[in-house]
Amino acid sequence: MAGLSREDVAKVARLARIALDDVELDRFTDQLAQVLEHARDLEALDLAGVAPTAHPHGLVNVVRDDVVRASLERTEVLAQAPDVAEDRFSVPRIIGEAP
Amino acid sequence: MSLPEGWEVVVGLEVHTELRTATKLFCGCANAFGAEPNTQTCPVCLGLPGSLPVLNRRAVELAMAIGLALHATVSSSTFHRKNYFYPDMPKDFQISQYDRPINAGGYLDLPDGSRVGIERAHLEEDTGKSTHLGGGGRIHGAERSLVDYNRSGVPLVEIVSAPDIRSAAQARAYAAELRGILIATGASDGRMEEGSMRVDANVSVHRVGEPFGTRCEMKNLNSLRSLQRAIDYEAERQYALVASGGVVRQETRHWDEDRGVTSTMRSKEEADDYRYFQEPDLVELVPEPAWVEAVRAGLGPMPAARRAHLAALLDEPTPAQLDAVGTVVDLGVDDFVEAAVAQGVEADRAIARAANELAGEARERPGLTPGAFAATLRLEQAGELSATQAKAVLATLALAGGDPVGVARELGFERMAAGELEGLIDGLIGEHPDEWGRFCEGDDKLAQFFTGRVMRATRGQADGKVVLDLLRARRG
Question: Rounded to two decimals, what is the model's pTM?
Answer without folding.
Answer: 0.84
